[in-house]
Amino acid sequence: MSDFNFLMLYARLAGFKLLVSANRIACEHEFSKTLHDRLLAGLDGAIQSARHTMSLQRELMAVDDPEGTISCQLQGEEEILAGCTIVLLDELEIDYDTNEYRVNGGEWHCALSADCDGIEIRYPTTVPLSDTELGPLAAIIRDIAWETGVAISVGRVIYH
Q1: pLDDT tens digits, residue range 35-82?
Q2: Given 34, 63, 85, which residue is the final one in a domain?
Q3: Can you give the pTM of this predicted structure?
Q4: Which region, left, alpha or beta, applies to residue 135 given φ > 0 means left and ψ of -120 to 50 means alpha?
């Protein structure tokens, strides 16, 4: 079992959720409200994962686990939470084996093109939003990542 304090993580995530909720009230533009809503949804997911991890820790302390079932579940939850990334705008997945990509979980598209000059592979890229585009949310996102270790992606897919 990990020595990581999931109760402290839970408290920090819940505090940031309150901060983001309060900050959303001052939003004037729909785009900013959408980013706040997506961040709130992501924080909810991370909070639920932290709660589940704490529940497994309590269960492991309360009962005998000779087969290691609870320990295995706990390790899996810890790995899921450690790899958690909250995506606020666009998510780009690239499969380099098949030369395909997809945006926001949509359909896969082929990145190969061929003409008389040869074959070209062209993938889109993700460009992070600037602090100006994010407004006050930029500082909050940095603080969440710094204090909790939860990664937050705020990028826009650009096609070349």
Answers
A1: 999 999 999 999 999 999 998 888 888 888 778 788 888 888 888 888
A2: 85
A3: 0.83
A4: left
